Amino acid sequence: MHAPRTLPSAETAETAAAPSPRTTGRPFTAPIREKLAVALPHEPLLRNGHLLAMSSLVNAALGAVFWVLATHWYDERTVGLNYATISAATLLSTVGQLNLSDFLVRFVPAAGRHTRKLVLACYAAGIACSALAAVGFLLLVPRIAPGLDFLLTPVTGAFFVAYTAGYAIFALQDGALTGVRHPGWVVAENVIFAVVKILLLAVGAALTLFTGILISWAGALVVAVLVANVFLLRRAVPRHERQAPQTERPPRMVGYATADYAGSLFRMAAYSLVPLLVLNALGPAHNAYFSLAWIIGYIPYLLATNMGSSLIVEAAHAPGRLAQHTFRVLRHSAVFLALGAVAIVVAAPYVLSFFGPGYADQGTTLLRLLALSALPNLLVSVAVDVARMRRRLRMVVGLQLVLCALVLGLSHVLLPVLGLTGAGVAWLVAQCLVALYLLIWRSHWLPRSSENPS
Predict the structure, then answer these.
(1) What integer pLDDT is reported at residue 28 of this predicted model?
(2) Measured between alpha carbons, how far is 273 from 408 in angstroms, rounded to an integer?
(3) Partners of residue 246 on adjacent β-strands
């Protein structure tokens, strides 16, 4: 960070304190951390955002390997149904974890000696509510998603509930690790998750298990959650409790969480309900084509999300620099997003062809439209994060509500007419309309240089 008085990131401090090569007991990860320290920006705002983005890119690359193998080892119908199941569980876990991952990013930096209590309370709420959401979904499967009726047996149903609850913890631990300024561990646990997932996929394929894809995700989830939380709760949280100031009070935090949760439901509904719309409108095979295009097209979205998380953490440590950090994130991220969008537009048919000719034929235009939609999404995503930091919670909810309504409404209308391309058009048009509003009325959300958010 440019301001000399702000606290250094925990990753930077840990690297600086690493023992010399001659010191016995030197961690085996020290060379990797030293190389990252040289390659990444020294400014914590960008450095931590880059680490979070690196986590997303590594996860996406290994995820692509996973789905290439899945499409070769399983038929299109099986891939489509398993992906729809995973999408449903992701949505339900998001509903159940009450958006407490973003809540932890916002409030852990200033939680002080109450950090462990805050993290564990969020975990408990996430497990309980996610399990209840999963049970409710299973009761409604015959009406809202009849294609997923294989989940209604006792064994697969219990498995689905456990997976949904575990995925809530997986999301919450990322928020906690980001809040304590250890984004490097977000990279590590996502690598663990991806690698174990691929290994278990091979086992499931060898055993010809119809639910092998879902089982591989669940097994990898268990490993990643255990490893990340050993570090988080035994090392990172105790250190943070000793160093971080306590400035936030529970009543204000609860009010914030309630409103922010309402907004997050709309955002995740837009992300997770479109696959179900595709499944119901076009069938399992087209849902498989959509799923792979969405996984790749969502990568630029993750860059905006990750930089926004870093923005919130650094603004929590230095509230007076929110305006400076906002413009820094917008300028810095726009360049990378533009380059990434151009690369995806050019490479779309070649990338999708790795999954099979049907994926390239059906998903190329969709993927290109999704990549272009990431450009206006940067403005939308940063505006939501700025509103969170300024406690403009009506704007937080309103922006995500409008985006959700536009995406789902347009997808519902356009899918029967344009096929999979309709989903891409829906995302691009929705993002452009919301971004246009933010550009015209930028004074409503952009902070002034002298502003200090309460």
Answers:
(1) 43
(2) 8
(3) 111
Tell whether the model's pLDDT for residue 54 goes beyond 80.
Answer: no
Q: Letter for the amino acid at 276?
A: L
Q: Are the CB atoms for 367 and 295 separated by under 8 Å?
A: no
CB 406 within 8 A of CB 429: yes
Q: How far is CA 228 from the centre of its chain?
A: 16
pLDDT of 17: 38
Q: Which residue matches tokens 């930089």?
A: 307
Classify residue 111 by its DSSP letter.
Answer: B
**What is d(CA 159, CA 218) in angstroms, rounded to the nearest whole number?**
9
Query: Residue 244: pLDDT band by 50, 70, 90 thresholds?
Result: low
Residue 246: φ, ψ to 5°? -105, 110
Work out the angle at residue 253's Cα, subtended by the Cα atoms of residues 103 and 116, and round it to the nearest 5 degrees.
65
Classify residue 253 as left (phi > 0), alpha (psi -120 to 50) or beta.
alpha
Which pair of structure tokens corresponds to residue 58? 């590594």
Tokens standing for residue 5: 């008085």
Burial class (CB in 10 A: 0-12, 13-18, 19+), 249: exposed
Assign 29 to helix, strand or coil. coil
Residue type, position 363, single letter:
G
Side-chain-side CA neighbours of 403 within 13 Å: the count stands at 32
Beta bridge partners of 111: 246
- The CA distance from 153 to 404, in Å, is 32
Q: How far apart are CA 85 and CA 94, in angstroms?
A: 14
User: Which residues touch 66 (CB under 8 Å, ≥6 apart)?
Assistant: 194, 197, 198, 201, 216
Of 85, 421, 125, give the one whose Cα is nearest residue 279: 85
pLDDT tens digits for 76-95? Answer: 888 888 888 888 888 788 78
Amino acid (1-letter code) at residue 142: P
Question: 3-class SS at 406?
Answer: helix
Q: How far is CA 4 from CA 1, 41, 43, 104, in A?
A: 7, 15, 10, 25
pLDDT, residue 433, reads 97
The encoded tokens of residue 13 equal 């401090």
pLDDT digits (tens, 9 = 90+) for 175-198: 999 888 888 888 888 889 999 999
| Secondary structure class of 249 (helix, strand, coil) | coil
> What's the token pair of residue 66?
């996973």
Confidence of residue 20 (pLDDT cuts 50, 70, 90): very low
Query: Lowest mean pLDDT: which of 46-60, 179-193, 417-431?
Result: 46-60
Which pTM was predicted?
0.71
Go through the chain and tell me how many residues it has. Answer: 454
Letter for the amino acid at 343? A
Asked if 331 contacts 46 with a C-beta cutoff of 8 angstroms, the reply is no
> What percent of the chain lies above the pLDDT cut of 70?
87
